[in-house]
Give the backbone structure.
Amino acid sequence: MLNAVLAAFVLAFAAPLVARHMPRQVGTIAALLPAGIFVWLLNQAEMALGPGVVERWPWSPLPGVALTFRLDGLSLLMALIISGVGALILFYAGAYMHGQAQAGRLYALLLAFMASMLGLVLADNLIALFVFWELTSITSFLLIGWHFQEERSRAAALQALIVTGGGGLALLAGFVLIGLVGGTWEIAELSAQAGTLQDSVVYLPILLLLWLGAASKSAQFPFHFWLPGAMVAPTPVSAYLHSATMVKAGVYLLARLSPALGGTSEWSLLFMVTGLVTLLLGGWLSLKQNDMKRMLAYSTVSSLGLLVTLLGLGTKLATEAAALYLLAHALFKGALFMVAGAIDHATGTRDLRRLRGLAGALPTSALAAGLAGLSMAGLPLLAGFAAKEFIYEAALFSGGGVWILTLLLLAGNVAFVVVAQQMTLRIFAGASLSFESFHAPAIPLWLAALVPGALGLALGLLPDVTATLAGAAARAIYGAPVTIHLFVLPGSVTPMLLLSALTIAAGILLYRRRVQLEPWLNWLDQGARLGPEGAFQRLVEGLPHFAARVTALQQNGRLRSYVLWIVGTWLLLLGLTWALRGGPGLPANLLVRLSDLRFHELILVLVILAGLASVMLANTLMTLIVSLGVVGIGTAIVFILFGAPDLAMTQFSIETLGVILFVLVLYRLPGVVRLSPRRTVLRDSILTGLAGAVITLMILIITDLPLVSPLKTWFAGASEPLGHGHNVVNVILVDFRAIDTLGEITVLGIAAIGIFALLKLRPGRKVAEGKDGP
Amino acid sequence: MTSIILVVATRLIFPLMLMFSLFLLLRGHDAPGGGFVGGLMAASAFALFALATSVTRARDALRRSTFRLIGIGLLFAFVSGLPGLFAGSPFLRALWTSTELPVIGKLSSVLLFDTGVLLVVVGVTLTIVFAMAEADEEEEE
C-alpha cells in the first residue's frame, strides 16, 4: 500500500514532464496508474474483506507514530472509489484540459491529491492519517485556486483552506487527546478501547474537536459554504475532489472512529443534528441554483449531510445504508459533474436557464446523465434505489423520534429527485436550442461519465456484489459482523417502498412547481449567507483590522511610545511578580554601605548625576550631546574602577562613535523642541521614575543576597587551561559561549541591513547610487 | 567643511588606529581587547577618515562594501566552528596549534572567530555611519 501511495506521488512529479512531451496522451497515461491501483485493490479484495491486510512501516523514534496501513472493508470501498473515479477523471481531464496552459500542473496536483487521499483512507494510525488529511487540504487549495489570475478563484481557495485548515487544527488537538486517553494512535487498537475513551472526562472535548474537523472538511453546516465556492475550479477537480472523494474524508473519519467513539447519545445528537440541518439546507438551496455546478455542489453538501446523519444514528441498518449510499453517491455524482463539464465544454455555458433539448446533440452524455439521474432519484434497478430503501428502513427502525426523522429524511430526499430531473429532463429534453460555438465533445468527455453511470446500473443488477462490498464497509463501521441482503426488484410492498414512491412523486411535483418555490428559497439563501458565511467574512476581514488597530496603538511610529510600552510592560510584570510572590525587602544595612563610598567614587557619581540633569534640562543640541558624553564617560570610568577594562574600552569606543554620528547629523536635527503636553510629560516622568526606582531597588536587593554561583569561579579557573587565554571575558565570548556570539553578530548584521533600508530607502526618495546600493 | 588640521591629523592617526585595532584583536585573548573593541576602533578610524575627506573616499579606502565585510565576517565566524565539527567535537569547539608565531602568537580557530567578529562590527558600524553621512551629503547637493 505504501508503494501505491508513493508511486502516485512520484508520478505526480513526472506528470508535467509527460504533459510537455505528449500533451495529447498525458491524461490517458496518468490514468494508467490509478487504473493499476484499482486492479490491484480488486486483487486484494478477498483478503481485505476477510481478515484485512496490514502493513507497518516504523519511521519515527517516537513510540506509536508508525506509518501503519490497513485495508479492510471500509478502506477498500473508499480506495476503490478514489482509484476508480481517479482513473476516469484523469482520462476525462486529458480531453477537458487539452490545449490549456500549464495542464501538466493539473495532472501533477490531481495525482498528488489522489496519493494523499489514498494514504488517508488506508492509514491506520491517527498521526499518519492527519498528515494525509492536511495534504488533501493543501492539494485542494491549490486546485481550487487553479485560475489563480482571477480574484474570485484565489478568494475561494483561501476560504476553503482557512475553513478546512482550521478544522484540521482542531482535529489534531482531538487526535492528541485521543492518543493521551487511549495510550495509542493505532486506530485498530483504539477501537478495542471504546470503553476507556467514552468514560474519559475529555470524551466531550474529543467529540467537539472531531466535529470541527469532520464538519469543516465534509462541508457540514455551519461550514458548508466553502464547497459551492470551490466550484471555481476546473470541472475534473470538482467532480473528483469536491464530490466523490475529498469531501468524504470527514464522513470517512467519522465512520472509521465510530467503533471507538460512537454509539453514545452525545455522538448521535451532535452528528444527527448537524447532518439533518446540512441535508435540508444543502438540498433546498440546490433548488435555487442556476449554475449546474453550483447546484450539484449544494446537492453534494446535502448528500454529505445525509451520510453524517446515518453515521450519527449508528444503528446496524444506518451503517448499512451509509455504506450503500457512499458507493452509489460517488458513482452518480461523479458522472453528473462530468456531464456538466462536457456540456460546458460543448456549449460554453453551465446556466440551466440557457440549456434545453441537448439530447440530440449530445446523446451519449444524455445517456450517462440519465443513468446517473435515475440512480440519484433512487429508482429501482439502480444502485441508488437500494441505498434509499435502507435509509428509510434505518429511520423507521431507529427506535425513537421515528416520524420526525423519517419526515426530515423525506424532505431531504425530495430535493435529490428534483436535482436529478434538472440534470436530465430540463437540460436534455424538449426542443433544442442553437449555440454559436457548439462543438461535439471528445470521446473521454462522455465516456468517462458513462462508465460510472453504467456502473450504477450494474451494481443495481448485481445485488450480491454490492452487498458484499457495502457489507464489508458496514462491518468496519459498525464493529460487528454485518450481512446485507439486497434484491434487484422489490418483492413485496413495504413501508420503505411506499416512502420511496412518495419521495419520487413529491419530487416530480416539486420540479413542476419549482418557480413558486423561489421566494421562499431566496429567503433561506439570504439567511444562510448572512449566517455562517457572513460570520466567516467578518472574521477574515475583521482580523487584519483588529491587528492593525493593535499595531497602531503599540507601534505608532513614535519612539517615545515604543519605550513607554516596553518599560510599562516590564514594570507591570516585575511589579506583579513582586507583589504576588512577596519578594525580599530592602537590605537593612543600606546606610552603612553608603558610608563605604570613597571620595573619588562620590565625585564620579555626582558628575554622572550632573550630566543626567543637564541632559534633561538641555536647551541646545550641543549641550545635550556633551552632557550625554559626560554620562557615558563617567560610566566607563566606573567600569575601570570596578575592574571591567573590556567593558570600559568598549564604552569609550561607543562614546567616540556616538560623537561622530552626532556630528554627521547634528545640523539636520530640528534642535531641542518641547512638543509633549504637560500631562504626557508628567505621565512619562512618573513611569520613568518608577522604572528607575524599581531597577535600583532590584540591584540593591540582588547585590545584598548571598550569591552562591559556581559559574564565576569555574570560568575564572577554566579560562586558562581550557580556553588558552587569561582574559576571561574574551574567552567566554569567543570560546565558551561562541555560539551565542555567532548569533549576536548575525543579528547585528541583520540590524545593519534594516538601518540601511530605513536611511536609504525612504518612500519618495530615489535610491542612492552608492556602492552599497541594493 | 574640510579642515586642514583634521585632514593632516587624520593622515597621521588613521594608520595608528588601524594598527591599534589589530593590536587589540591579537592581545584580546589574554588582556583587555578582542574583536569587538578592535572592530569599533577600526570603524572609528574609517569614520574619522570619512569626516576628514568624504564618504566616497572612505569607501574606496575600505576597498570592500560594508555589507560584504559583514558577510565575510559571518563566514569567518561560521567556518571557525567547522574544524571542531570535523574533529568529532561539537560545532565551534576551539582548536589550537602548538606552534608559536611571532607577533600573532598561537594560531587557533578562536582567532579566526574573533577576526570574524571584528569584520562584522566594522561592517555594521560603517554601514550606519556611511549611510547617515551620505544622507547628509545628498542633502548638501
